[in-house]
Write a structure and sequence with these properties.
This protein has 266 residues and is mostly beta strands. Helices cover 0% and strands 52% of the residues.
């Protein structure tokens, strides 16, 4: 890992032909190939020994998956409830903003401790690896990987509205179905907040685009961005993972489906 000059907490490595590593304040890092993607971006997670009880509760999850290698990756969204025994008590696949289809009892996965570290998720499709991480503020997140996709999840927690004037600098990578991607290094500023509607706006520094978000929609801990033809902002659902310095977004626009990962810069 060689530090990238003038860009703290970012690194380049020759492993695999060249990868970029962007490290968040929590230590979770985004890793992707450069100059072109040969696989999905991945997350490097500090190892922790969490118990199943740490994962109990209601979760949101955003993914980028495909049925098999013959079709493109597409954004996915699920919600689920996990018991202290590792059994999923409920779950649903969601499309759009409000349309969710509940999992049947025979579709509910089971989570078990992997003696080599992390957890193993088992369902009717087989097994997947799950790595969990707990930040110093108590935020719990999980990364689920399988042969045809990546899912990032975090517990449902009502998020407060941001303060007007708050700025945030970040790296950003938007990945499309065929693994083409767009990289950006940008900054945003909160321009307005409406406590009565849970709506706020933010301005992007690079092009002055104004985005509108509805906080805690469609579930607690998520935020919804409606389509704005004036600013070219696409309809999307976003998930900020506590104070880890990570956020994830899925496009709901069927004409331009992508999975977006942002890492806050220092």
């Amino acid at each position: 890992m060689t530090p990238i000059s003038g860009d703290p907490c970012s690194f380049v490595t020759s492993v695999g032909g060249g990868k970029i590593i962007l490290v968040s304040r929590s230590g979770v890092a985004l890793v992707y190939d450069t100059p072109t993607l040969t696989s999905l971006p991945t997350l490097m997670v500090p190892r922790q020994e969490l118990a199943l009880a740490d994962l109990t509760g209601d979760w949101n999850a955003l993914g980028f998956e495909r049925d098999d290698a013959t079709v493109p990756f597409v954004p996915t969204r699920i919600k689920f409830t996990l018991g202290a025994d590792g059994k999923f008590q409920a779950g649903a696949d969601c499309t759009g903003v409000d349309n969710c289809e509940a999992w049947q009892p025979n579709e509910l996965p089971v989570l078990t401790v992997n003696p080599r570290g992390g957890f193993t998720l088992t369902d009717s499709n087989g097994t997947s690896a799950l790595v969990a991480f707990k930040d110093i503020d108590g935020t719990v997140m999980a990364v689920i990987t399988h042969g045809n996709g990546l899912i990032v999840a975090t517990k449902q927690v009502v998020r407060p509205l941001p303060a007007v004037g708050k700025k945030n600098a970040f790296w950003d990578i938007a990945v499309f179905g065929a693994l083409n991607y767009v990289y950006a290094k940008d900054e945003t500023e909160i321009k307005s907040v409406d406590n009565s509607t849970n709506i706020y706006t933010r301005e992007r520094a690079s092009d002055k685009r104004i985005d509108t978000y509805v906080q805690n929609q469609p579930n607690a801990g998520l935020r919804y961005r409606p389509k704005d033809s004036g600013s070219n902002a696409r309809e999307a659902v976003s998930m900020v993972v506590g104070n880890t310095g990570l956020s994830f977004l899925i496009s709901l626009d069927q004409t331009s489906l992508f999975y977006d990962i942002a890492v806050d810069r220092p």
